[in-house]
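Case study 2.
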Amino acid sequence: MSEYTTEKKFVVAEGDKGELYIFIGAKSEKPSSPQIFYDGKDHAVFVRNSSQNIILDYIHPDVREKLCRSKEVVVVETLLENIKDSYFADLKVVDKIPVDWKLIGLNTWEDAVKKNI
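Prediction:
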């Protein structure tokens, strides 16, 4: 089983036709059957390949509903200001992601906002 890493700096953007893009930092291994699991709450798990589970840390409340309505997103991996790779990832909305976020050191969006005040 792979370990979890956390992607703290990512951007979710919406295209002209409503398609969703998730911009993340470039990774060294190739993606293989990428999937994102999301329960409509604070975090999502991006299974990039069999050895990479990436937590998308603190999904902004303004994009949660759009993610829940999507069946796939375009993942764009960037290196500095350049695009290294882009590909589709299936988005699966689940009732609950079976991860204890506190064991990974994560709380809720509201807790994160309070820490930055």
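Residues 45 and 99 are 9 Å apart (CA to CA).
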